[in-house]
Amino acid sequence: MSSGPPRVEVQVPIGYHPGRGTMLEHGRTVRMDLRRKLPGVCARHGQPAVEFRSGTIGFFADNEQIGLPRILGHGYVMNNLHARFAWRDFRDVRSRGVVVVLRGRPVAGEPVMVRGEWPVCRRCVRQSRALRIAGFTAVLAAIATVSALVAASLFDLRQFLVPLGFAVLPGWIPIGLLVTIAVFDRAGNHARGRLTPDRRFLVIAAHPDFAEAWNQRPSG
Asked: How far apart are CA 171 and CA 166, in angstroms?
């Protein structure tokens, strides 16, 4: 559950560049760019931006933002739309890529990446730094745990094998790994949104102060 004022939907025009795109192993991702500069106000917190950071937001073929909660079917992403991951279709992850496995069926179409310059405030910077530290700490803890398990096995320390084994599986794989991915994803995600069906606009779920700054921008 989010705190603070309710989100306001802000439509930002985006542009598609024919022929551009990053080739994937089994397909192609479409690249698009923001066509208007965003105001110097953080979209998340409504505070003055201290810098603009270059970044890309990914979207599923159905125009909803890519994120770990959406893939696994828990939490909320953008518009509280929930989706479930069908484990019977896990084989499609290898053959078609994880971004096309959704709601128990492959989603036709190509994922979309929207590149832009995103305003971030001091609060965003602090949160991003803290999340990255937490992510790196989790990675180091995982390496230490695996190393301890190997050492316990080599030196025949049987009393440590079972607890260390559980710490690695399922403690780190998959639980810790998924949490770490989510932490790094959140650290680099400076806006929430979705694409309109015609893919002409990025609809940002923004703080009211960002929406006001966007509406007061010079036309043209």
From this structure: 6
Residue 5 and residue 207 in contact, taking contact as beta carbons nearer than 8 Å = yes
What backbone phi and psi angles, to 5 degrees, belong to 61?
Answer: -65, -20
The predicted-structure confidence for 12-54, as pLDDT tens digits, reads as follows 999 875 555 443 334 567 788 899 999 999 999 999 999 999 8
SS3 letters across 85-132 = CCHHHCHHHHHHCHHHEECCEECCCCCEEEEEEEEECHHHHHHHHHHH
Q: Enter the pTM of the model.
A: 0.69
Largest interatomic CA distance in the chain: 72
